[in-house]
């Protein structure tokens, strides 16, 4: 423990970061402790003590942990406190102690606004709290904090020099566990262990966990707990007659635990048993008036030989499974009549006929017979040279046709629609003529107007053109994305042109163009030419290929210390061009070095073997590193006389690479006259609007200084800085 001497109230900043694990974060959640026990808990991070209490000498109160103790015999109680991380490195710990109080509740009700019994805010990792003249029954409240804000453990215990002792009956105590061993279940060869856990003063947080040594079965109870006992039950324990133990422990107080021995139930024979059968029927199939049913058979201790036979009382081929058997065993029955009957699934092992089970289910009701077109044919004729046309014929086969309305037959490639009126007789023949011979993909669709869902479609291919006006289509591909596609067709006097193609393309030009092409525009383009004298129609197609652009992969954004070149690269092309070329080791290489003096965006353009290009950019961030050593000077005097020279007390060069900073200034009587957390502060010698007389003042500084790693991508280190000294105010 460090005490600030003479007129100075000590001041050192504490920033702690600890994850509280069952330690109270305020007075009302304080945990009890007693002498004779060493307490270790993980210190928390990024928490703050509640506002209100008088924190005495503590300049900051981060990450608190509250405890209380009751005096059993009078005298002096000395408590040792320390903090270290898992690697053994020591870290700053501080404390304050209030009391005496008549009870913990009375202490918290007081708001802890009175003076502290003892307090320390030093930079030490080891502290000593001394409570003098402690009387029997007195309650003292202790708050511990972790300044370093790093994961660590705080340890505290009474010192051997203590003459006072404390009351340990305020702590949790587990007094016993009863054990009731249930009978063995022959179906599973397991039993249940039950009983009651007896205790006093259970923790207010955490869990109560019950485990046993003979299996992994565990039961967990959450706070709040019953005042004196909790009933437990562990099911599914193996029946083997072995000696076992059952253990209960509170997570918030691991010392509050109890273990009781017991003997497991003896083993009982396990018989073959089918525990259940699932049966899930499908819906009725309107076309066949049938359904399927499937499910699984679940069992234990099946015979090692023979068969498992599964039958259905409503028909279907029995399912026969051979040994060895695995539970659950799947089955299915198909082609069953949908008649609303009550059916049953039965499973039986041939080697153990008594091991059987039956499950009932209901068959689905018969389903209505709906209109359905079961067949639609489409046969195109040959091309007629006189007209360049053809005819497509076929038949429509259907069941349960509507009694009204029409049956409409259409062709996706044009032509006249054919309509048939009710009543309808299946099969029904149709014929669609006057269709253009162009080799196109076409389809015939038949639909009943009175039941639009009763429809069918049949695809076919039109015959190629047989006209005397042939046409040839072409293109200037292959091309790269973004270039211009030129389509060409044979020139014919008096002809009209009709183009179709991917992505909804259409045109009536003889030689259309498409600018800024994309991959979606690749594919087959068809041109149809029409003349009137002589009358003819002819079509031709051309396939356009688009080459892919390169896919550029770069190293992404990088960071470098100024003067230390960064390596950057790209791949995905065959040639490369970097811009801007300044400060680059090679502007046409896939891998190069960049050495800019300020953060710069570099863009690379890549060309692949097809001559297609693409580009992307990355950023080289230039970092000014924090120096690894420096002299943090503090002035020893300032003269706030308004002459513009040394009028304020400032710390030059402290404002960079500082992640935490605190300064406190005291007059010679120990009164704090100034404080700041800004390393760029300046004090003008004025307090509460009053200009102070010349005097000597004491300052205390506590800061965390960051040191850059070997490269910008490596984490920064941290160094703690503490300084104290005098500064003179002169006029």
Radius of gyration from the CA trace? Answer: 46 Å
Q: Architecture of the largest domain, according to CATH?
A: Sandwich
Number of helices: 1
- Low-pLDDT windows of residues: 1-22
The proportion of residues in beta strands is: over 45%
Q: Could you report the average pLDDT, rounded to the nearest whole number?
A: 88
The portion of residues assigned to helices is under 10%
Number of separate domains? 7
The CATH class of the largest domain, by name, is: Mainly Beta
Total E-strand runs: 59
The biggest beta sheet is recorded as:
6 strands, mixed
Main structural class: mainly beta
**Distance, first to last CA:** 38 Å
CATH third-level topology of the largest domain? Jelly Rolls
Shape: flat
Explained architecture:
The protein has 731 residues and is an all-beta fold. The chain has 7 domains: 144 residues, Jelly Rolls (Sandwich), CATH 2.60.120.380; 91 residues, Immunoglobulin-like (Sandwich); 90 residues, Immunoglobulin-like; 90 residues, Sandwich (Immunoglobulin-like), CATH 2.60.40; 75 residues, Immunoglobulin-like (Sandwich), CATH 2.60.40; 71 residues, Sandwich (Immunoglobulin-like); 93 residues, Immunoglobulin-like (Sandwich), CATH 2.60.40. The strands form 16 sheets. Strands 1, 3, 5, 6, 8 and 10 form a 6-stranded mixed β-sheet that branches. It has a 5-stranded mixed β-sheet with strand order 51-59-58-53-54, with no helix packed on it. Strands 2-9-4-7 form a 4-stranded antiparallel β-sheet, with no helix packed on it. The longest helix is centred in the first third of the chain and has 6 residues. It starts with 30 loop residues before the first strand and ends with a strand. The N terminus is likely disordered.
């Amino acid at each position: 423990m460090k005490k600030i001497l003479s007129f100075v109230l000590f001041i050192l900043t504490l920033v702690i970061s600890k994850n509280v694990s069952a330690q109270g974060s305020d007075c009302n959640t304080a945990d009890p402790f007693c002498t004779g026990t060493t307490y270790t808990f993980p210190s928390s991070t990024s928490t703050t003590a509640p506002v209100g209490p008088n924190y005495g000498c503590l300049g900051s109160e981060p990450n608190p942990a509250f405890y209380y103790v009751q005096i059993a015999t009078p005298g002096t109680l000395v408590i040792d406190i320390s903090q270290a991380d898992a690697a053994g490195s020591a870290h700053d710990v501080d404390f304050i102690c209030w009391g005496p109080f008549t009870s913990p509740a009375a202490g918290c009700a007081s708001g802890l606004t009175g003076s502290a019994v003892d307090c320390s805010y030093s930079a030490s990792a080891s502290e000593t709290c001394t409570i003098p003249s402690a009387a029997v029954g007195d309650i003292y409240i202790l708050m511990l904090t972790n300044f370093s804000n790093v994961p660590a453990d705080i340890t505290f215990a009474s010192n051997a020099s203590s003459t006072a002792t404390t009351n340990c009956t305020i702590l949790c105590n587990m007094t016993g566990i009863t054990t009731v061993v249930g009978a063995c279940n022959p179906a599973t060869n397991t039993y249940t262990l039950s009983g009651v856990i007896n205790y006093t003063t259970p923790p207010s947080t955490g869990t109560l966990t019950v485990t046993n040594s003979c299996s992994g079965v565990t039961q967990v109870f959450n706070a709040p707990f019953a005042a004196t006992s909790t009933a437990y039950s562990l099911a599914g324990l193996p029946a083997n007659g072995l000696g076992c133990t059952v253990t209960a422990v509170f997570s918030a107080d691991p010392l509050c635990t109890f273990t009781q021995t017991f003997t497991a139930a003896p083993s009982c024979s396990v018989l073959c048993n089918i525990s259940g059968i699932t049966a899930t029927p499908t819906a009725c199939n309107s076309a066949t008036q049938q359904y399927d049913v499937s499910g699984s058979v679940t069992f234990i201790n099946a015979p090692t030989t023979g068969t498992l036979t599964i039958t259905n009382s409503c028909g279907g081929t029995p399912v026969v499974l051979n040994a060895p058997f695995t539970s659950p065993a799947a089955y299915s029955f198909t082609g069953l009549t949908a008649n609303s009957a009550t059916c049953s699934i039965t499973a039986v092992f041939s080697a153990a006929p008594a091991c059987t089970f039956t499950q009932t289910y209901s068959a689905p009701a018969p389903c209505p017979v709906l209109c359905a077109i079961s067949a639609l044919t489409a046969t195109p004729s040959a091309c007629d040279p006189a007209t360049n046309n053809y005819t497509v014929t076929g038949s429509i086969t259907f069941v349960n046709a509507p009694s009204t309305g029409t049956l409409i037959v259409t062709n996706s490639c044009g032509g006249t629609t054919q309509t048939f009126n009710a009543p309808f007789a299946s099969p029904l023949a149709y014929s669609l003529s006057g269709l253009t011979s162009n080799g196109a993909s076409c389809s015939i669709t038949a639909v009943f107007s009175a039941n639009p869902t009763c429809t069918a479609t049949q695809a076919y291919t039109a015959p190629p053109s047989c006209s005397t006006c042939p046409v040839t289509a072409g293109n200037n591909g292959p091309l790269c994305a973004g270039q211009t596609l030129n389509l060409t067709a044979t020139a014919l006097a008096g002809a009209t042109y009709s183009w179709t193609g991917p992505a909804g393309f259409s045109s009536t030009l003889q030689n259309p163009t498409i600018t800024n092409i994309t991959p979606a525009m690749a594919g087959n383009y068809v041109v149809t030419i029409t003349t009137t004298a002589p009358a003819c129609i002819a079509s031709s197609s051309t396939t356009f290929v688009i080459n892919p652009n390169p896919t550029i992969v770069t190293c992404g954004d990088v960071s470098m210390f100024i003067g230390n070149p960064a390596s950057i690269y790209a791949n995905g092309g065959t040639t490369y061009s970097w811009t801007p070329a300044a400060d680059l080791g090679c502007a046409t290489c896939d891998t190069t070095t960049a050495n800019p003096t300020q953060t710069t965006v570099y863009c690379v353009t890549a060309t692949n073997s097809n001559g297609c290009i693409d580009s992307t950019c990355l950023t080289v961030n230039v970092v000014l590193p924090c120096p690894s050593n420096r002299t943090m000077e503090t002035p020893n005097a300032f003269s706030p006389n308004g002459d513009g020279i040394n009028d304020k007390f400032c710390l030059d060069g402290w404002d960079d690479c500082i992640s935490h900073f605190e300064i406190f200034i005291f007059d010679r009587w120990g009164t704090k006259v100034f404080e700041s957390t800004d390393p760029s502060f300046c004090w003008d010698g004025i307090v509460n609007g009053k200009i102070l007389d010349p005097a000597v003042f004491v300052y205390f500084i506590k800061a965390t200084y960051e040191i850059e790693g070997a490269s910008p991508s490596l984490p920064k280190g941290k160094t703690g800085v503490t300084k104290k000294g005098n500064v003179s105010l002169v006029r």
